[in-house]
Design brief:
Radius of gyration: 20 Å
Distance between the termini: 24 Å
Number of strands: 8
Bound molecules: ligand G3I
Low-confidence stretches: 1-43
Strand content: 5-15%
Order of helices and strands: HHEHEHHEHEHHEHEHEHEHH
Number of helices: 13
Strand order of the largest sheet: 1-2-3-4-5-6-7-8
Helix content: 25-40%
């Protein structure tokens, strides 16, 4: 993939947001004055090691952020994203119910905007997500309820074909199945997909996504694995089963929402990553946040980030993605019922916190 310097990246992204190609001058230069930083020589500039993106590149790691596309309306956000991150995840806008709110009516507007922005900024894209296992949150369209098994199979196949096909060659990797492990352990076996497709529904989804874009990496993505040993065992067993079945699985995402505000016991994360990597799959942190809860402080938060990211990268993780950019925009406030959980690397004014320094240093080690 093309590598750009930080200033050029910010400029290219702003150009794209202004509806221009990075190869063409803006029609109204006065409205995008910062974009003049896109100089031909900048395309070969080495990554700036003072940024997360630059530090991560030095380790051969991606550093990503989950975002809602309307955040890019703010030029300061667009610039920060393009400067600091090398991978973009749609927080919600690539989910099935977001795109196909009404059956047979798909609207890719928000998803397109994010993929365009990633292209313009030289960022990779993690497509999130095609199928949800657990029926929590709003990961699946409500209109699936009441359909026959044959109809569910048809609809799921069409959804995967359309969305993966649309972004073939542009979305680098897909979280094909989000949260396949049941709260009680084992693969979810009581959702609409297992009922329609049978116990091999995860493999079915992976095969279908592979047909739609044979070049995309295909991942499964799970939460709380580092916090619950029984979940780690279930996830590892699932990977082994998928491999035995010949399913196209490239990677395992560890969401890493640190709900307690603390890291797991030292070594836990590294051991988990090592066990997964020993199976031959790539591993990434895909949704990290560390809320301030129960007396934790910005200092302990930074320590938790340092420990988890440090262990993950040392054990061979290839990506660290944060579930949000700044403390003013986080799902955790509502989820934890707290006025503010401040779980991210940048504060409400987009200023870096101690957690930023911690992650930056952990990426450099
Ligand atoms: O956009 C509508 C808005 O029009 C409406 O007024 C409002 C009223 O509730 O809802 C808005 O949609 C919300 C959406 O976030 C956008 O803010 C949904 O209700 C809400 O359920 C949705 O929550 C998202 C959740 O996934 C469910 O999809 C969170 O933002 C998002 O952070 C969260 O992300 C998940 C990952 O995909 C998978 N891992 C766990 C993580 C946290 O649940």
């Amino acid at each position: 993939m093309r590598r750009l310097g930080a200033a050029a990246l910010a400029g290219a992204l702003l150009l794209a947001l202004a509806g221009c190609s990075s190869e063409e001058p803006a029609a109204e230069p006065s409205t995008v004055t910062t974009t003049t930083a896109v100089a031909p020589s900048a395309t070969t500039a080495p990554p700036d090691p003072s940024t997360l993106r630059g530090a991560a590149a030095g380790r051969g790691v991606r550093v990503g952020v989950a975002l809602q596309s309307d955040r890019l309306d703010d030029p300061a956000v667009a610039e920060l994203v393009a400067t600091q991150f090398s991978s973009l995840t749609a927080e919600n806008e690539m989910k099935w119910p977001s795109i196909e709110t009404e059956r047979d009516e798909m609207d890719f507007t928000g998803a397109d905007r994010l993929v365009d922005a990633a292209d313009a900024g030289g960022m990779e894209v993690r497509g999130h997500t095609l199928v949800w296992g657990q029926e929590v949150g709003n990961g699946m369209p409500e209109w699936l309820d009441g359909l026959s098994s044959a109809e569910v199979e048809d609809e799921l196949g069409e959804w995967i074909d359309t969305s993966v096909g649309r972004y073939a060659g542009r979305v680098d990797r897909w979280d094909v199945v989000n949260e396949p492990i049941a709260l009680s352990g084992g693969v979810v076996d009581d959702n609409v997909f297992s009922e329609a497709l049978g116990p091999d529904w995860v493999a079915w989804a992976l095969e279908r996504a592979h047909s739609a874009d044979p070049g995309a990496e295909l991942w499964i993505n799970e939460h709380s694995v580092e916090q619950q040993p029984e979940k780690a065992e279930a996830l590892i067993a699932l990977v082994e089963d998928l491999q035995a079945a010949g399913a196209p699985l490239d990677g395992v995402g560890l969401q890493t929402h640190a709900f307690s505000g603390q890291a797991p016991p030292p070594g836990t994360f590294a051991q988990l990553v090592e066990r997964l990597r020993a199976l031959g799959v790539a591993v990434a942190i895909t949704e990290m946040d560390v809320p301030l809860v129960g007396g934790t402080t910005e200092t302990t938060q930074a320590d938790a980030y340092a420990q988890i990211v440090g262990e993950c990268v040392a054990a061979g993780c290839e990506e660290i993605t944060l579930w949000g950019l700044d403390d003013g925009h986080t799902w955790l406030d509502a989820f934890l019922g707290q006025e503010r959980t401040d779980p991210l690397l940048f504060d409400r004014d987009l200023q870096p916190k101690p957690a930023f320094d911690a992650v930056h240093q952990a990426l450099q080690r």
